[in-house]
């Protein structure tokens, strides 16, 4: 039910909203995956997979693989999946494709650089920008060794890629693609591959900036795990996990849709009067959505009152947008917290 409700609210939003953000006519879709640590039970271990840790006396840990097709400009999770831990990110990406259309531009990291996937996207008239590993792609390796900023290449499938394409009834013809170099602060270069081959319409600078727009899909997982407490579930059955996962995705989308729709004029007014640019605090938007959901069965009068109160409170808790903000990661081992079952009154 939650999946259907999410499909309905997303469809309504894209059909009715007047402020849908796009890039050169494209809806930008970031696809990325992550893992969830689930409470241990025999049913969950069988359904999602488990392993024994090398510490803590071989404690059994259940993990699930999750993936999203995420509208990075409008912050909407168009499609979200939770599967067995051994499910590959490529397989999950493939499962998202029926929810996307020709007007979507997919932005993905190195885990998705596969010929069969790119050929499938070209066949479906979908555009993409994918980061590639230079040590695994001969074209990228040669391009990295050169001094060029961009290069048009023709990519043919390997034997393994041929088999993958034939299994899925995907074209095995060579692809005309474009490599783009992206210098980063560390002095290294990242390599992007795309089927946006028109360098006049899509200059190198814009392709570089385009890949950076993928970041909100990473941030969405952080919000789901920390603010929405996605790993603290209401039960130890596969059904409970699926319900909680889809319910949280539904609520996260609802909070983004309501906050953007209800506060746009207020934020625009505030930004005209202030030195810095402000945006909605997404943590507060998600937390305050619960009061609206609680009123769904109480009638429209109470819902309208709650929505007005919701918008007013969000405008009082705006946060500054800090472009190009970079905080170095400090890698240290920290024990993950135990899973807690959600309280049921």
UniProtKB/TrEMBL annotation:
Please list the GO terms describing molecular function.
DNA binding; transposase activity
A Pfam cross-reference name: DDE_Tnp_1
| Similarity section | Belongs to the transposase 11 family.
PANTHER family attached to this UniProt entry = TRANSPOSASE INSL FOR INSERTION SEQUENCE ELEMENT IS186A-RELATED
Q: Does the keyword Cytoplasm apply?
A: no
The Transposase IS4-like domain covers: 27-248
**Per its UniProt entry, which superkingdom is the organism in?**
Bacteria
User: Any one Gene Ontology biological process term?
Assistant: DNA transposition
Q: Where is the signal peptide?
A: none
The record, for InterPro entries, names: RNaseH-like_sf, Transpos_IS4, Transposase_11
Q: Which UniProt keywords apply?
A: DNA recombination, DNA-binding, Transposition
Q: SUPFAM superfamilies annotated for this entry?
A: Ribonuclease H-like
Q: What name appears for this protein in its UniProt entry? A: Transposase IS4 family protein
